[in-house]
Write a structure and sequence with these properties.
469 residues, alpha/beta, TIM Barrel, Arc Repressor Mutant, subunit A, 8-stranded mixed beta sheet, globular
Length: 469
């Protein structure tokens, strides 16, 4: 398989890790997003009428498309969020360049209308999308689901395929066969159901739980042969998956930090200006630059310059200086306190020479990632500092970040145990056998009691198998 696309619902959190993983595996990564479309305007947020969103799949054909998709998704969150981050046709039209549009899964407007015998309405929605993205950049998406159950979902998908073929012939807009993937292997369906129960705080034994996919366990990564069998009557829809993949060429520069432009006095380089400020700070703090001080600071400045972090230090120096001038309480923590340069610039207030702190714990030539300089700022003044950053560097060059919590081994065991409706004591006992910061597999390999529980108790066996997924 030469290419794989990632189209998470409403977000792009996984885009960069996915991009890097695919590139390292020799597979072309295609970045996209399954956008939520508001039933009216994306800023309309009134009761139940504006909760009935639909889906639309967008793929980045090139770098312009990637930038547009980032902006689009950002606005859906900042301006269109109402239960979900939503767009509308007007918003799509502002960011359509460089994007390929697929009409979406069965929750897409075109699909919904075709399944509901509203052919003309489906056609109108399709032509709206073609007008926004261009006819050659718009594809009617078809999927087959419910194959194993042969249920109403399956009958709906066959009907959708039949009507979509008719719509494609009438409009001249091509079909594309896709696979609605929520997990990798077919046997992962139960683990996916457990994850949904964790998300919605339900148990697997509740038949009326809020969200369920287990009755249609077809959301796995199908093989090329399976896809070919399912869409044997529409080979062009399969061929278009390759055609779209070949059109997508996205190069994301990763691994090198991009810093905002920092205003430096005319005629000076960033390294020379950082050296000047550092020397001034050392004189103020020590009265003179002794050979011991010179040796350490030269070593630090050499590494900072070699790694390309001169601007980074200047930005932090400016931030600390402005904050203190505003009489806003500020401090730093962590390994940056080992830096004599940071001390000279008043980024930190701890003398690393006095405490014999090693700079290499903070930054060294072998470190692949940028160093962290963590500022603690008075909570009631934090917004003032954020406003200063936006004003100095521009709203388009500064952003706040998000931190994601992941399910650790012990937490996964307890969550899965709750969903399986096991007595609290069972997952609690198993979780306590797992050493802190250890994966489940590492614990299985090193904790004999855990391995014995797994091999002799069917309940524990199931609990661990699901939690590992």
């Amino acid at each position: 398989m030469p290419a794989v696309a990632l189209t998470d619902h409403g977000v792009m959190y996984g885009a960069i890790p996915f991009y890097n993983k695919m590139r390292s595996a020799g597979i072309k990564p295609i970045i996209g997003c399954e956008i939520y479309l508001a039933p009216r305007g994306y800023q309309d947020k009134e009761g139940a009428r504006d909760r009935n969103y639909s889906h639309l799949t967008l793929l980045c054909e090139n770098n312009e498309g990637y930038q547009n998709l980032i902006k689009l998704v950002t606005r859906t969150h900042l301006e269109g969020y109402y239960y979900k981050p939503r767009a509308d046709y007007h918003l799509l039209s502002q960011y359509s360049k460089g994007l390929i549009c697929l009409t979406g899964c069965r929750k897409g407007l075109v699909s919904q209308n075709l399944i509901s015998d509203k052919y003309e309405k489906a056609k109108r929605e399709l032509l709206k999308l073609a007008a926004i993205f261009g006819k050659d950049n718009t594809f009617i998406e078809i999927q087959i689901f419910g194959v194993k159950a042969k249920d109403q979902n399956y009958r709906d998908s066959l009907k959708l395929k039949s009507e979509a073929i008719k719509l494609s012939k009438e409009t001249g807009i091509d079909l594309v066969a896709t696979n609605d993937v929520h997990y990798v292997e077919a046997e992962d369906a139960q683990a996916q159901e457990i994850l949904l129960c964790i998300q919605t705080k339900e148990t697997i034994n509740n038949p009326k739980r809020k969200m369920s996919m287990i009755n249609t366990p077809d959301f796995y990564f199908r093989s090329p042969k399976e896809m070919a069998d399912l869409f044997a009557d529409v080979p062009q829809a399969l061929a278009n998956t390759i055609n779209i993949a070949e059109r997508c060429h996205l190069e994301i520069k990763t691994g090198k930090p991009i810093f905002p432009k920092f205003s430096i006095p005319s005629g000076k380089s960033d390294s020379a200006y950082l050296r000047e400020l550092t020397d001034q700070g050392l004189i103020q703090k020590f009265g003179e630059i002794t050979p011991q001080i010179a040796k350490k600071v030269n070593y630090e400045l050499g590494i900072i310059d070699e790694k390309g972090y001169n601007t980074y230090f200047l930005i932090c120096w400016d931030l600390a200086k402005w904050t203190r001038r505003q009489k806003i309480p500020i401090s730093t923590r962590g390994s940056v306190t080992a830096s004599l340069v940071a001390y000279a610039l008043d980024i930190t207030n701890i003398n690393p020479l006095e405490h014999n702190l090693p700079f290499d714990r903070f930054l060294n030539p072998e470190r692949p990632s940028p160093p962290d300089i963590d500022f603690d700022i008075a909570e009631d003044k934090r917004q003032e500092v954020i406003e200063y950053i936006y004003q100095k560097y521009g709203w388009d060059h500064a952003a706040q970040i998000i931190t994601f919590g992941t399910m650790e081994a012990r937490g996964a065991i307890r969550d899965v145990g709750r969903v399986l409706d096991l007595p609290y004591s069972v997952p609690d006992r198993i979780a306590k056998l797992i050493p802190p910061e250890s994966s489940i597999q590492q614990a299985m390999d090193s904790v004999l009691e855990l391995k014995e529980e797994y091999e002799t108790d069917p309940e524990v066996h199931q609990l661990i198998d699901i939690a590992q997924k």
